Amino acid sequence: MAYDEGLAERIRERLGTGPDVSEKHMFGGAAFLCRGNMAVGVVGDDLIVRVGPEATEEALARPGARVFDMTGRPMRGWVVVAGTAVGEDEALADWLDEGWAFAAGLPPK
């Protein structure tokens, strides 16, 4: 499955480089990790964001967000955000900041 390389590049630019940032190919797309914990990714044209179980309901109320369900079993603490909902840099930055903050609070892998 191909993924939106333009969206992935925007994420790379926002996250920058450093010892805490890494990228892997997962789910047929690109995953961005904070100290080994996945924070955000790109699958197809969409952004996936790790928000944590407690923030899922609030995240799902935001424009373009839906449950992350690739296998018929929703992944708790994750949401998918339609690529069209992160067309503006500010909207993308908000989601990236949220995913990164959650992953940064986890023990390094």
TrEMBL record:
SUPFAM superfamilies assigned to the protein according to its UniProt record, in alphabetical order: YgaC/TfoX-N like
InterPro entries, A to Z: TfoX_N (IPR007076)
Q: Start and end of every TfoX N-terminal domain?
A: 15-103
Q: What is this protein called?
A: TfoX/Sxy family protein
Q: Which organism is it from?
A: Streptomyces coeruleoprunus
